[in-house]
Amino acid sequence: MQSALFSDDGGTASEVRPATPEPSLIPLAADLPETLRMGTSSWHYPGWAGLVWDKLYSEEQLSRRGLDAYARHPLFRAVGLDRGFYRPLTVDQYIDHADQVPDDFRFVVKAPSRVTDPLLRGAGGKGQKINPDFLDSAAARAEFIEPAGIGLGSKLGALVFQISPLPSHWLNEMERLIEGLHTLLRNTSELKARCPDAVVAVEVRDRQWLTPAFVDALKDTGTTYCLGLHGKMPPIAEQLPILRALWPGPLVCRWNLNLKHGAYGYEKARDQYSPFDRLVDPDPETRNALAKVIAGTVGAGQPAYVTLSNKAEGCSPLSVAALAEAVQARIGPA
Predict the structure, then answer these.
(1) CA-based, 20 to 30 A from 207: which of 1, 13, 98, 299?
(2) CB 59, CB 45: distance < 8 Å
(3) Sheet hosting strand 224-229, strand order edge to edge
């Protein structure tokens, strides 16, 4: 029944085709700096029919065949590749993704939980025991840095080590943890030799990381801070001192969740915003603050990689368009 609904050829998945873009998006895209690459956190949402896809496709069709059509959207010059967090991707999988997008397209790739989550988790995401490979350099190199660098090559935009929330009793051990992170980041130097334009970034989910020692570790290794807009972190204005301490440098930002939902609101946001076809909770305050950071970054000749989730405002393609308009208003026509 589902195949008859979603395909043209009696059950075989058909080619995914892009939607005809809104006419205003084409000149808007032309006005944005080449060093700004924006996109969404993933691309497999059927609810984007008419915005990104020409019609309704199944999630499976979009996951397997939708990336080429996604990359034809005028504003999408990047995409978040988060699925490797749950299961590391192989070189061949990265190559397959890279082959579907144009040369100027970039991927923002999230590191696997094996090296960024302090806990091994069971069904439902509940932590069961300490992860022995947390911040392990060898695991990061073998399962993330090398496969992504080899498979994506010049299309690798940013590697993001998103450190999951720490057990509460670890929050008093930040010096030890920052030393471990520092060691891990030192081992990303070989990536820079293979992909000199790629950015390495660290995103955290506990504000206790945001210390001078953390900044020193990032500076020493040429790593940037990933601006994580999420309920577990302070608002954007309170995170900016970290970016200022690293200035000048590239921007990596992942707008993951509307602050109204709090620290544990993913499921609530998903249920409230599905099928992700409209802006339910516009957040112009965060959007304008982010546009200001983007304008300052690209104005200084630095690259900016920004991905937005459906859980930010309800529909990430529309969020990207609204953010692009806010950036254009600050920088003027190209």
Answers:
(1) 299
(2) yes
(3) 36-40, 304-308, 251-255, 224-229, 199-204, 156-163, 106-110, 78-81
Q: Please give the span between the terminal C-alpha atoms of the chain, in angstroms, as a whole number.
A: 49
Contact 308, 38 (CB under 8 A): yes
User: What 3-state class would DSSP assign to 112?
Assistant: coil
What the block records as the tokens of 73 is 């959207």
For tokens 């953010």, name the residue: 323
Q: Which residues contact 212 (CB under 8 A, 6 or more apart)?
A: none
Q: What mean pLDDT do residues 301-306 have?
A: 97
List the CATH number of the domain containing 305: 3.20.20.410
Domains of the chain: total: 1
Range of the domain at 46: 2-331
Mean pLDDT score, 310-314: 97
pLDDT for 28 equals: 97
Taking each helix axis as running N to C, give the angle between helix 174-186 and helix 212-221, from 0 to 180 degrees, rounded to the nearest 10: 10
* d(C-alpha 7, C-alpha 65), whole Å: 12
* Residue whose pair of structure tokens reads 């200022």 in the numeric block: 244
Q: How far apart are CA 67 and CA 75, in angstroms?
A: 14
Residue that the structure tokens 């940013």 belong to: 158
pTM above 0.90, yes or no: yes
